[in-house]
TrEMBL record, chain B:
Gene Ontology BP terms: positive regulation of DNA damage response, signal transduction by p53 class mediator
One Pfam entry name: Arc1p_N_like
CDD domains linked: GST_C_AIMP3
Protein name: GST C-terminal domain-containing protein
The GST C-terminal domain, residue ranges: 49-171
Gene3D superfamilies: 1.20.1050.10, 3.40.30.90
GO CC list: aminoacyl-tRNA synthetase multienzyme complex; cytoplasm; nucleus
């Protein structure tokens, strides 16, 4: 199997950390943001996992879950719930926050865009009372959320308010060698690559989306 | 919207006891109230739970690879298709159409939960497509027609007419 990643893309931190943590054997190929790896998708999408059968997996969370599953760790409902929250609630806020901070230099507005999801995370962590999101051990949900938040939480200038639980959890996950190596490869010192990645993304919709179908 | 989907899914799975649901936030995210455990939030999370509850694990995929593919299209449904900006809808239809070129269902030859939820989520778009557009997205239309005729799936949604006979509309004499 072959994993395609690109520099500066926070989603690639997720899959790289997952592959290192689970020890699944896989060739890693660094490609450009513009590379169209999946033939049926009209927009270049990364990361991509190409399986020996020829199947492409192109969503980072499904790729991470696959690595965990083949290494014998099946996801449970609690993990699924965090993954769905990450995709539907956290990602839209992150897209907006990254756009504001990296492309427009508006750090305070970016922190404000993340306030809702971060305080939800803070509350959930303090209610749950475990070392990690769903248990006393690291699960796929921890890796995915940690990597998603990495561009902000690793920045000492990021001031989202008082989030003691989130900070402790973030540090705990960040101690894992797999996470350090992944962020080192994809993000650290690669501000220019992150910027290029964001410039290639569609401009996020700043207003909250209408819950009704859009046609 | 999501609650009607979940109730149809319960029926198609043959679950006898209907669950209690509420919604959360301005996006009306479904929440499953559980009497003997914590509640579950999110359409995909709850749908997967219902499938497990009904002891139909094959609907989530029969191998690690198929489970990943199912998971991917479930994720696609809630992150790319739902609340899709108007100018992006065509791209989503195009991608699905291209993907389905050599497949019967989203996970290949087997019907899965990904088909059910994608069908529920895309129905309002398919209803509004003109005949020519359905022709343009011929693989997607074929898949849609398969799924709406799949036993027990349609429930709360009206059927959409999909022309199965292609040359009927493209003949020019």
């Amino acid at each position: 199997m072959k994993l395609f990643i690109s520099e500066g893309n926070p989603h690639c931190v997720k899959v790289l950390a997952a592959v290192k943590l689970t020890g699944v054997k896989c060739d890693i190929s660094h490609v450009d943001h513009e590379e169209r790896v999946v033939p049926y998708l009209s927009r270049p999408t990364l990361p991509v996992l190409l399986l020996p059968s020829g199947t492409h997996l192109f969503t980072p969370n499904a790729i991470c879950q696959y690595f965990f599953e083949v290494s014998g760790q099946e996801a449970n409902s609690l993990c699924n719930q965090w993954l769905e929250w990450e995709g539907t609630e956290l990602q839209p806020a992150l897209a907006q926050a990254l756009h504001l901070s990296v492309l427009q230099g508006k750090a305070p507005e970016a922190a404000r865009a993340l306030q809702g999801p971060l305080s939800f995370l803070e509350q959930s962590l303090s209610k749950k009372g475990t070392q990690f999101l769903t248990a006393e051990e690291v699960k796929v949900a921890d890796i995915i959320l940690w990597a998603a938040l990495y561009p902000f939480m690793s920045d000492s200038n990021f001031m989202p308010g008082d989030l003691p639980q989130v900070r402790r959890w973030f540090e705990r996950v960040g101690l894992l060698e797999a996470c350090q190596a992944a962020s080192q490869t994809v993000i650290n010192g690669k501000g220019a690559a992150l910027k290029t990645f964001l410039q290639k993304q569609p401009v996020p919709h700043s207003q909250r989306r209408d819950p009704q179908p859009c046609n | 919207m999501a609650l009607r989907e979940l109730s149809s899914l319960e029926k198609s799975l043959g679950l006898k006891k209907p669950n209690k649901y509420s919604t959360q936030g301005e996006r009306k995210v479904p929440v499953l109230q559980n009497s003997n455990g914590p509640s579950l939030t999110g359409l995909v999370t709850i749908a997967v739970h219902l499938v497990q509850d009904a002891k139909r694990p094959e609907l989530l995929g029969v191998s690690a690879e198929q489970r990943a593919v199912v998971q991917q299209w479930l994720e696609f449904r809630v992150t790319k298709l739902d609340d899709c900006p108007r100018e992006e809808v065509k791209n989503v239809l195009k991608d699905l159409n291209q993907y389905l070129e050599d497949k019967v269902y989203l996970a290949g030859n087997d019907f899965t939960l990904a088909d059910t939820l994608m069908y529920y989520g895309i129905h309002h778009i398919m209803v509004d497509l003109a005949v020519q557009e359905k022709e343009k997205y011929v693989n997607l239309s074929r898949w849609f027609d398969h799924v709406q005729h799949y036993p027990g799936v349609r429930h709360h949604l009206p059927p959409v007419v999909v022309l199965r006979n292609r040359f009927y509309t493209s003949s020019h004499h």
